């Protein structure tokens, strides 16, 4: 395989739909509607458990790469030094919204899995991810490349 860099999921999805490239790795959210419309065929997901949006699609771990695990995630951050009481208040309100039926249904339908964990749990995830990817980058000798 030859890696081709694109400036986002939109451009890479257009490229695979147009036959410019043969396949892509991307999050489920930007392509789930193309999959459900039959325009894209998923081979596997990269999480440890099957996606609720694509329950018939196996994981890479199930497909012969045991333990393979890459999850895309996003979260809300505040500037360093924001008082803990403000952080906890924001987290509580954001979690309420994420767990409301209408927002949860819309996010899930779009390919997201709303979580709303505690600030400490999210900070631990960020530290774990930074350590995991830093090691992989160093071990593989990956060097940064500029987009052109």
How is this structure best summarized?
The chain has 5 helices and no strands. It has 148 residues and is an all-alpha fold. The chain has a domain of 71 residues.
Number of helices: 5
Give the rounded overall mean pLDDT. 91
Pattern of helices and strands: HHHHH
Tell me the radius of gyration.
Answer: 18 Å
Q: What characteristic shape results from the CA principal axes?
A: globular
Largest sheet: none
Structural class: mainly alpha
Strand fraction: under 5%
- Provide the low-confidence segments as ranges: none
Number of E strands: 0
Helix content range: 40-55%
Distance between the termini: 21 Å
Please explain how this structure is put together:
By secondary structure, the chain is an all-alpha fold. The chain has a domain at 73-143. 41% of the residues lie in helices and 0% in strands. The longest helix is centred in the last third of the chain and has 22 residues, at 119-140. The protein is globular. The model has no long low-confidence stretch (mean pLDDT 91).
